[in-house]
Task: structure prediction
Amino acid sequence: MRRIVLLALALGPAGCMYPHPPPPPPPPELGTAGLSLDPAFVDKFLGTYRSGGDVLSVRRAGAGVFAQRSGEPAYALTRTSDRAFVDTRGVAYIFTLPPDGNGAMLQMVYADGKVRVWNRSP
Result:
């Protein structure tokens, strides 16, 4: 009995309790990186982008943001910084927006390091 008491004193109160439950998931308006997906913020990145003959659509659906190239499935985007997102394949989307909001550009950075530049259509 004395050993149990000494062990309890050595471990402290936290050592004598059951493990704490895991933290709750982030609210739906937060990306997995914990950054806001506020529609007013996200809307400035939405639109149709072109690179060569390819078309990429960046759109919002519900609480999510999606990118979709012509003829391909849409990929969910997660915000990682003030102007960057990443899709479910690990492709980074880095947006450049001029102060007036016109002529936005998107750089897609693939896992192999290749970069493709897209310009937003008016």
Remarks:
- The chain has one domain: 28-120.
- Residues 4-8, 25-32 have pLDDT under 50 and may be disordered.
- The radius of gyration is 23 Å.
